[in-house]
Amino acid sequence: MTERSERGADPAEPPGRAGHVDPATQAFVAHRNLLFTVAYEMLGSAADAEDVLQETWLRWADVDLGTVREERAYLVRIVTRQALDRLRALGRRRESYVGPWLPEPLLTAP
Questions:
Q1: Is the pTM of this model over 0.90?
Q2: Range of the structural domain that residue 45 is part of
Q3: Is residue 69 part of a domain?
Q4: Residues 43 and 103: beta-carbon distance below 8 Å
Q5: Total number of domains in the chain
Q6: What is the pLDDT along the chain (110 residues), one digit of tens a residue?
Q7: Which of 24, 85, 90, 82 is CA-nearest to residue 56?
Q8: Are 83 and 42 spatial neighbours (Cβ–Cβ below 8 Å)?
Q9: Residue 102 lies in a domain
């Protein structure tokens, strides 16, 4: 019998957490593509959108899920507010650009 089959768990997982995924993590991962799209459409930069997702995760991790009725709507609201805050901050730091504004291109195919 192998060591792995004796323990019955994946060696990469911490002890006592085999197969357990946090509900907050599940909800965030389930809606991550939508959240990225919202942030990217508002900011026009993949790097800024990823930063907003990081900030959103930190806020989402502190929320009492028992008080949230619609996780998707709540997450979109957090992303929207974070993106608006980032736009305000970038507007204060950004120099005036004379040319036309174009969003950063994203790869859609492998």
A1: no
A2: 30-88
A3: yes
A4: no
A5: 1
A6: 444 444 444 434 444 455 678 888 999 999 999 999 999 999 999 999 999 999 999 999 999 988 989 999 999 999 999 999 999 887 766 566 667 777 777 777 77
A7: 82
A8: yes
A9: no
